[in-house]
Design goal:
Distance between the termini: 55 Å
Shape: globular
Largest sheet: 7 strands, parallel
Radius of gyration: 22 Å
Mean pLDDT: 83
Number of domains: 3
Structural class: alpha/beta
Oligomer: single chain
Number of strands: 7
Length: 384
């Protein structure tokens, strides 16, 4: 990838000059949010596709072919309606389990996602992404791309842990959630819909979604604000921790969606309910980085307008020059990193100068200072 010169954002030929300035304003706001260290990254399948991993629909295609090869009883026919994909996933999973059992299902999932971390082939996009000072990283992806990027870019830290919420290790789930409030360096990647290495954490089918979130998916749509029945929560007391976590984060944190296509009806439905209950209409709370094509810019702008009105999400566009070409997204993330680092440079210098003034004998290397500070704290505890 060729880095943009200076900190200029990639040009947008799909925009008028006025629209370009508006997009630049949104980008400036996103820079300020990320520089505040309060934003959470929510990463979708678009970040892993360049490395050969599949979209959710692509995964279903692979699993459907596998299911058809196992024996009679399964018809490999994709749904015509997007709302039927969860039921299609249920049929696929049920047939695989019937023919080869949980072990066979686990083996095909791991076969599709297992990669040696040394051969994943990270791009500059992934390196730039994990260097942005997000408070936490969440993903709907099953793969280990983000853990690999964190491990490569911060080798001096602890190895990052994949943390699935549903059926995940509670000894990792609790620290991962607490770290969001504390703001410690990222040591966990929260896998909202599971991690391939823990197969029973994978949220794939309709039944998986209902069990993971603790509710049925045929909830009525959110009612307009002000109506007494606008929230269905009072009638659904058995929400699981995945649902509770998503509601808590969407209501109290600001999310930045990257590589996220918004096809997930469940996550979108939860955010819509949170927005209708708690957030200002037409006000932006979250951000998404999305493509816009010069061949159909009106469609992308209409989608962005709807996201802002219904979900409180502001869109920062990058141009998709040709179908499937997301190189401008990579440049946009690089621009974000440059601008955020420039924004934080003065405060970093002041912080380091303050540390040296307080502890002149301590090395100015941040990792060394942290170790020395931890040692001092331990001595204080032992003296008490």
């Amino acid at each position: 990838m060729t880095a943009p010169s200076g900190s200029a954002s990639p040009p947008l030929t799909a925009f008028t000059e006025e629209q370009r300035r508006e997009n630049e304003r949104c980008l400036d706001e996103l820079v300020e949010l990320i520089a505040s260290r309060q934003a959470l990254a929510f990463v979708g399948a678009g970040s892993s596709i360049p490395l050969g991993f599949r979209t959710w629909e692509g995964l279903l295609d692979e699993l459907a072919s596998h299911a058809a090869s196992l024996g009679t009883g399964f018809v490999e026919q994709k749904p015509n309606d997007a709302g039927e994909y969860l039921d299609y996933a249920s049929r696929i999973k049920e047939h695989i389990l019937h023919c080869s059992g949980p072990k066979g299902y686990g083996e095909i999932i791991q076969k599709l996602f297992m990669r040696n971390r040394a051969t994943i082939g990270l791009t500059d996009f992934h390196r730039d992404l994990v260097n942005l000072p997000f408070r936490a990283i969440l993903t709907t992806n099953y793969d280990a791309v983000l853990e690999t990027a964190l491990g490569e870019q911060f080798p001096e830290g602890d190895e990052p842990h994949p943390v699935p919420i549903w059926n995940g290790d509670t000894t990792l789930v609790s620290p991962a959630i607490r770290s969001i409030a504390i703001g410690t360096p990222i040591q966990h990647v929260i896998h909202v819909h599971g991690y391939f290495g823990i197969v029973n954490s994978i949220v794939l089918s309709r039944e998986d979604y209902e069990q993971a979130y603790g509710t049925h998916l045929d909830l009525p749509p959110a009612s307009p604000m002000g109506e007494a029945d606008r929230s269905p929560a009072a009638n659904l007391p058995n929400f699981e921790r995945l649902f509770l976590l998503m509601v808590a984060l969407m209501a109290t944190r600001r999310l930045v969606f990257i590589g996220f296509g918004w096809q997930d009806e469940v996550l979108r439905g939860i955010l819509e309910r949170v927005s209708s209950a708690l957030l200002e209409w037409h006000g932006a709370v979250h951000f998404t980085v999305s493509p816009i094509s010069s061949s159909s810019p009106e469609l992308a702008r209409a989608r962005a307008s709807k996201l802002k009105q219904t979900l409180g999400i502001e869109t920062v566009f990058y141009e998709e020059v040709t179908d499937g070409d997301h190189s401008q997204r990579d440049e946009l993330i690089h621009t974000l990193r440059e601008r955020v680092e420039a924004r934080l440079a003065p405060s970093k210098a002041r912080s380091l100068a303050s540390q040296v003034a307080s502890h002149p004998a301590v090395s100015t290397t941040p990792a060394t200072w942290v170790k020395a500070n931890n040692a001092r704290q331990r001595r204080r505890i032992e003296n008490k």
